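Let us work through a complete example step by step.
Step 1: write down the sequence.
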Amino acid sequence: MQITPVRRAGEKKDVVFLIDGTTSTSSKFPSIRNMMRILVEKLDMGLDKARVSVVQYSDEPKLEFPLNEFSTKSQVQERIMRLTSKGGTRRNTGRALEWVSRNIYQRSAGSRIEEGVPQFLIVLLGGKSSDDVSRSSASLKRLGIASIPIGSADADSNELRQISSNPEVFYIVNNFEQFARNQPTDNLIVPLFIFAQYWEKDIVFLIDGSASTGPTGFAHVRDFLLKIVQQLNVQPDQVRVGVVQYADRVMTEFLLNSHNNKAAVINAIQRLRNIGGCSSELPDAIDYIMENEFQPFAVARPAVATQHLVIITAGRSTKDFHQYGQLLKSTQINSIAIGAGRGNTQLIQIASTPKDFIPILLLPDLQTQEVFQHFIARLTGLTPVTLSDNETPCKSSQVFFFLLKITFLIAAFLQSSFLYFNHSGQILKTSRYSFSGGWFHKFGPKQLQKNDAIHH
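Step 2: predict the structure and record it as tokens.
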């Protein structure tokens, strides 16, 4: 399949800000304005490039300016900084979302949705909606609008899930005003793990099928693989998945090019059964992987896609494999190792970094949200971050929060140099980015500030 050439950062996109203008949010309004200004700074503005619109709402929505009113960044930023809170007692987010879907994503309002230009909606809200958001959120999804909700500490996480294009991606700010005042523009933070699904990757799962795993343990491994694949955009020019099983022998279940869509990969994984065997020598399996999987004849794509080896084992190997860590790193294969059992730390030797080793006590632990989120974070090159005692987590997550800079994330999300779209605005693929060390390491970890975190 022919791969579409890389699109540059200045290409077309329509970005709509829907902002809460209720009286109860008026004290936060200056920081909301400032956040919009910061995000606009990241865009390459122009009527033939990025367009921006702002809609403010409370009881009723109010169009501040349409997508085709301004042609320069300075014009948009100046207009944003002159906005004032409209006031109002009811926060009718559902009505506002419906109004935006009907009135803004239209040719008459400057939207280029009919031309296949990517459409974005960034919702900034100060609390729980006074009306239902489910139907209007569904309408936006049907239109192919990429919605990103950012709420204050009073926002309702279930509502944010409904508003978001992906229920795994929503943001809650403890304090808008303090957040905007204390954070420099390169240190605003948000979860990023869900965007793993859009990056070009070749992923080979190497799974222990020995008697140490057993049928019950293997079922947990299989379910874990299914959960991961559900998060990936499996297509020939995006994410490819292969599976190899090992015990006293090594067997390819399917190659990277065996299945070209998510449904086919899921069906193949569901049919997996452990091969059995009294030994599980990981060095032999890695030799097999290097000779048979990450090779051109197996359709590995090191020139255009990041290469990933995911090892899941139920016990220790009797053979030394210290040398394999250096071998994998020399071939730019990113290795994530998940090992069950007490003291099973030898996998650190072959994980790309110590953070890429995920120890678990028992294979059923693969089903925990903690392990799942840790894995996804490592697949994207991020570092899982825990909150300090002074932070208050969202109800939906109590252990790991995957945090990165908000301006960089949304800029990357909006920048066409990272994302590709089809005629209906659906995300198709991204340009390649080397994850040797990952974005987190490239830009450097930042110390979270008290009351400045965004929780997911």
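Step 3: interpret the result. Confidence is low (pLDDT under 50) at residues 1-10, 182-198, 382-456.
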